[in-house]
Amino acid sequence: TDRYSVIGRPINHTKSPLIHGLFAEVTDQDLTYGAIEGSLDGFEDQVLCFRDEGGRGMNITAPFKLRAYELANERSERATLAKASNALKFEHGKIYAENFDGIGLLRDIEHNLQVPLAGRNVLVLGAGGAVRGAVLPFLAAGPARLVIANRDLTKARALAAEVNDDRLHVCGYDALVGQDFDLVINATSASLTGELPPVATAVFGHALLAYELAYGKGLTPFLRLAREAGVMRLADGVGMLVEQAAEAFEWWRGVRPETRPVIDRLTVPLE
Ligand code: ATR
């Protein structure tokens, strides 16, 4: 039996063992998947210890994604741009780092919610780790424009400078006045504290979809604002969570589980 685990702090609310357990069941994979409460001064030792005891891979959640990235010997391009890793694989005596958050978000939007990004005007709020991981997959999906708005403009500019793509624009929230978008994605951590990013209702224009990365929080202030602005489709990050898990599962096991039944099982109505 191969061993996997998620590590984070706090870890008590994690859905990853449930998700990977369901994946293992339906794909007939012989594995166990646990959860480890990370230690702020012993994270690296915990990962190495898990590996040395026969662990094959780990998912990494807050606040350790950057440290996981740094601990690895081999890093994917996505993880490198994100400077953060949410999945590690232990193989051939090496630690491989991946970042599936962005591709998971993209798959949820395009595949599950059926809103292709091609030719669209996309607004992403926030410029933290989640957004850094999403920029490359998003640009690869062919949007007309990808605008990243952040309070701290320096952070957003640093990201744009690393990417160098003329469809990518970064700005502060003030500069959004007078613009509207087809898709608006809240990737700030504001919803975790019940706050609203300082975004004007007008950005929603005739938006097809408003997407909140946080999950299990019901209608967050961002989703409420989107609904008031008339956006027909609202989504939270449960699909992204399951999709990034499926990517990791496939990376580790070579088989891709079906995600729809797991998403349905975890979905809590937004109302
Ligand atoms: P994550 O890894 O989840 O993306 P992070 O790297 O800590 O988290 O980034 C958090 C993001 O949420 C940042 O873009 C932050 O904006 P600043 O860089 O300007 O601080 C954003 N954020 C957090 N609280 C916010 C709020 N109340 N309004 C707007 N943005 C907020």
From TrEMBL:
For shikimate, which residues are the binding ones? T14, K15, S16, T61, N86, D101, Y215, Q244
One Gene Ontology molecular-function label: NADP binding
> Could you tell me which pathway this protein works in?
Metabolic intermediate biosynthesis; chorismate biosynthesis; chorismate from D-erythrose 4-phosphate and phosphoenolpyruvate: step 4/7
Ranges for domain Quinate/shikimate 5-dehydrogenase/glutamyl-tRNA reductase: 116-191
Q: Which reaction does it catalyse?
A: shikimate + NADP(+) = 3-dehydroshikimate + NADPH + H(+)
Family matches, as Gene3D superfamilies: Leucine Dehydrogenase, chain A, domain 1, NAD(P)-binding Rossmann-like Domain
Query: Keyword Oxidoreductase: yes or no?
Result: yes
Residue ranges of every copy of the SDH C-terminal domain listed in the record: 237-266
**Chain ranges passing through the membrane:** none
Which keywords label this protein? Answer: Amino-acid biosynthesis, Aromatic amino acid biosynthesis, NADP, Oxidoreductase
Give the residues annotated as active site: K65
Record's superkingdom? Bacteria
Extract one GO cellular component term from the record: cytosol
Q: What is its EC number?
A: 1.1.1.25
Q: Which residues form the Shikimate dehydrogenase substrate binding N-terminal domain?
A: 6-87
> Which GO terms fall under biological process for this protein?
amino acid biosynthetic process; aromatic amino acid family biosynthetic process; chorismate biosynthetic process; shikimate metabolic process
Q: Where does NADP(+) bind?
A: E77, G126, A127, G128, G129, A130, L213, G237
User: Which InterPro entries has this protein been placed in?
Assistant: Aminoacid_DH-like_N_sf, NAD(P)-bd_dom_sf, SDH_C, Shikimate_DH, Shikimate_DH-bd_N, Shikimate_DH_fam, Shikm_DH/Glu-tRNA_Rdtase
- What does the subunit comment say? Homodimer.
What family, per the record? Belongs to the shikimate dehydrogenase family.
PANTHER family (UniProt xref) = BIFUNCTIONAL 3-DEHYDROQUINATE DEHYDRATASE_SHIKIMATE DEHYDROGENASE, CHLOROPLASTIC (PTHR21089:SF1), SHIKIMATE DEHYDROGENASE (PTHR21089)
Q: What does this protein do?
A: Involved in the biosynthesis of the chorismate, which leads to the biosynthesis of aromatic amino acids. Catalyzes the reversible NADPH linked reduction of 3-dehydroshikimate (DHSA) to yield shikimate (SA).
**The protein, known as:** Shikimate dehydrogenase (NADP(+))
Organism of provenance: Azotobacter beijerinckii
